[in-house]
Amino acid sequence: QVQLVESGGGLVQAGGSLRLSCAASGRSSTIYYMGWFRQAPGKEREFVAAINWSDGRTYYADSVKGRFPISRDNARNMVYLQMNSLKPEDTAVYYCAAGTVYRRSDYYTYPTSYNYWGQGTQVTISS
Predict the structure, then answer these.
(1) Is the pLDDT of residue 28 over 90?
(2) Torsion, Cα of 53, 54, 56, 61 (10° steps)
(3) Quick one: pLDDT at residue 74?
(4) C-alpha 25: how far from chain center
């Protein structure tokens, strides 16, 4: 079992920044990759960014590429999402997720590739 706890959400004006953190505990040594997803009201959960736990390679949705760098700290079992140049359309609940079953990286964008999820943290961007 892997437990994930997100933090860092909040309310910020458009153009501002936030950093989300996700702490992994439990059998974190079994993690192959971690990702961030978001879900806005009335919409499906969508991929934001992912990182390979061993080699640190990163993957991004086009909508956040260049604005939301993802990073990890293996020693502390933490993953971060630095959100810059925020827009009102970035408003959503953001979820951290971990995959403990090997997948090719092109599968990192699918929620079904992840078997552990955090509880989510609300991010609200005002215009």
Answers:
(1) no
(2) -40
(3) 92
(4) 16
